[in-house]
Amino acid sequence: MSGLLWLIPCLPLAGFLVNLFARLPKPLAAIVGCAGPIASFALSVAAFAQLPVEQQVFDWIKVGAGPGALSVPFGLRVDGLTGVMILVVTGVGSLIHVYSVAYMQDDDGFARFFAYLNLFMFSMLVLVMGDSLVLMFLGWEGVGLCSYLLIGFWYKELKNADAGKKAFIVNRVGDLGFVLGIFCVWQLFGTLDFAKMGGMPVNQESLAFWGAVFLFVGACGKSAQIPLFVWLPDAMAGPTPVSALIHAATMVTAGIYMVGRMHFLFAASGMLHVLGGVAAATALLAGVIAVAQNDIKKVLAYSTVSQLGFMFAGMASAQFTTGIFHVVTHAFFKALLFLGAGAVIHALHGEQDIRKMGGLARKLPGLAVVFIAGGLALAGMPLTAGYVSKDAILAATYAAHTGPSLVWVTLAATAFITAFYTTRLILVVFMPRPGEHHGDPHHEIHKPGILMMAPLAILAVLSLAGGLLLEKPLAHLLGNVWGTEARVHELAMRLQGGSEFDRAKAFIALEKMGPGVEEYLETRHLEGLLKQAHHVHSLNQGLSIVLFFGGFLSAFYLYGRGRETLKGFVEGPGRRLHSLVENKFYVDEIYEYLVVAPVRMGATVVWFLVDRLLIDTLLVGGAGKIVYGAGWVFRRPHTGSVNVAIGSFMVGALAMLAWMVFRFTR
Amino acid sequence: MISNYLVLSAALFAVGAFGVLARRNLLIMLMSVELMLNGVNVALLAFARHWGSAGGQHGQVFVIMVMGVAAAEVAVGLAILIAVFRNKKTVDTGDLGSMKG
Amino acid sequence: MGIDPVFALAAAVSVVSGLMTVTRRNPVYSAVWMLACFIALAVVYLRLDAPFLAAMHVLVYTGAILVLFLFVIMLLNLKPEEFPPEPSLPAKGVCALLCLGLFGLLAVPMWFAAVELQGGTIDAKGPAFGGVEYVGEALFGPYALPFELMSVLIMVAIFGGVVLARRKAA
Lengths: 666, 101, 170
Description:
Distance between the termini of chain C: 66 Å
Number of helices of chain C: 6
Largest sheet of chain C: none
Number of helices of chain B: 3
Distance between the termini of chain B: 49 Å
Largest interface: B-C, 75 and 91 residues
CATH architecture of the largest domain in chain C: Up-down Bundle
Largest sheet of chain B: none
CATH superfamily of the largest domain in chain C: NADH-ubiquinone/plastoquinone oxidoreductase chain 6, subunit NuoJ
Helix content of chain B: over 70%
Oligomer: heterotrimer
Number of strands of chain B: 0
Radius of gyration of chain C: 20 Å
Structural class of chain C: mainly alpha
Shape of chain C: globular
Order of helices and strands of chain C: HHHHHH
Number of domains of chain C: 3
Strand content of chain B: under 5%
Order of helices and strands of chain B: HHH
Strand content of chain C: under 5%
Helix content of chain C: over 70%
Number of strands of chain C: 0
């Protein structure tokens, strides 16, 4: 198996090359486009069965020799974390590829779409499978490129091309941070290989701090955290499968994956607290904005930003399993929601405004079922995947801050808001509109075919049941990555003394560690602690359930049929508040004034002074003018007349003679 | 008395130079060059005579060299003149403008 | 200090015929005036006690160069209307001024330099100053190599003349 590891990323790459250059007819292009990811998924399953595997494909970069030399082999390594990631990427990716066949069937850029999608799969797989930061960066840039290409896929509309550019430019900020972070890590460890640096002590604290800061900036860019989240909602300009695959399920989680990979650095530098604060703020801000959005994809986009905040909060709690777990479940239900939204848009001939929808449950019952399944998972309906993973994060945060902290409260509020806006979305889209006589605004509705519905059904099952099914195996698997043994030992030590909160924190942490912990505790006669941990955890669980139903019921109250309360509030006393939220707290406008306008003004000045005046006019034009003028001057004597030539020769000879005469005669 | 000879030399040189400068007939310009060379020869011989036994041989040998070079120059110059005449049907330097920049 | 009358006559003839040479419109006349100039110069050479050079001068200039000129003149066979137009009078005047300046710059310093050189060495000549033996000793002695190189130069000139003047095989 380890010899075939390189095939996992390279099969989609082959699909990309074929579809880019071969100009196949649509059915063939679809087969080629889907075959790569599906085959990769099969190989990933095979690789997953033999964890851990690694393969050195070839020597990529070699600089210098001896100590301090940089050597970056193109090495792929699949451990528990990577295994989970490649399964999600190839699995969800394959489903989305299949769905895209139906979704894009009428598009002229069919083959191009699959080519880009396959290139994205390749980049994403390199990102998660690479055994060093350099390879990760290669994939990181690759997914950024594909994101840009796919957001601007319908580039003929300026708006879409602009959204692509915005995503790319905002990501450049983050990528610069990532590059600087790589430099810091190189300085710090002298290696970029994850396995090697993982076991090393972190000596220089300031260097570790700045390395973590820069890497975090990179993660903020890719995973849409404050202050770099503004590109993700605009990225919805791309085709909906792209939003599902890249901007919800996989690419945007790269930042969380990276934090997980470099967890020792973040943990050692104390950056986790910053991470948690930023994550919670992002989660709440994006959640609030999502409440007032009317574009179905925008709602889901802000929801994604919010959920990414949850994932970072999970990472920040130092229980990295919870963050990755939420990555997985979120990939299921958010991909489902996006694909379902895509099916809705498809059915309504491109309509994205939820205010013009309504009553779809009657017309598209199958779609409504799976969409609602995804929505419930997102909202955190007990026992669904979203509930399990979100609850885990809440509990971990509670534990990490030794009790109810600001971050924890914020996340809890966000969970409430999540349930609220998800329920609102479902009600508005699928339930009959108040006062509407079920009149059909659209004469014809595209019923989604089997190619669309099958992936949706699979994802719906995963969204509902995936959480409970996967929690323990995942915890076990990932626990190996982050060293269960050492962690349990450390926690057990803390259980021996410390405050009540400290103990509770350790309890919950232990409770989340999964199998292996119990045995460990039993051998040390500490199994009683586990029960207490369960107890503390169930408090959190109860809270989660309350939050879900709170959000769910309040949305029902406000948006259920015939309720005019909300309308009155929005148009009356709450008008200002509503427009503030609807306009996304004017973040884009603030950036426009604070960042874009000054940069543009500076650029204009520089353009005029340096480009126009100095380079164009003075240097380029000036050089030309000087040469031209000199040529004009020097061309005058060259009349071609022999007599003039002789005459000037004579004058010169006379001048020299005269000089000699006056020089050499006294 | 050497001064007289030198003045004669200068006069011949200047007359030849005038011919080269003021005429447009290639043939006459070549003849003028010969006059200039003769002027130089007179000066060389005058100096040779002046220094007598000290340097007389050198000056005379130089005159012979000048004569040889003059002969070669005339041969080539006239051949060029013929070639030019064949191509342009003229010996007028005013018509030879192909070196115009 | 009187001027040698023979020299004065020869010099006057050479300068005047030189002037006639450069001012004639018809090249044939120029060539004839040049002949007069060369003969007068031969006399000047004789007055400088250089009979060998005088003989060589007549041989080379009149016998070879002038004859070559005449050949070419006849070969071209220019009719008077084919003579190139001459520059305008002001242009000629400028040229004359230039040449007068040249004459002045050459003659005046040399005159004074030569006056300073007055050592009477003009009379301290060797017994055979201008003879064949005297010149030949130098030519085949220390100057043998330049002399041979001269022959190479002339040969090259012959080749060049043949190549340049040859009628192109059309």
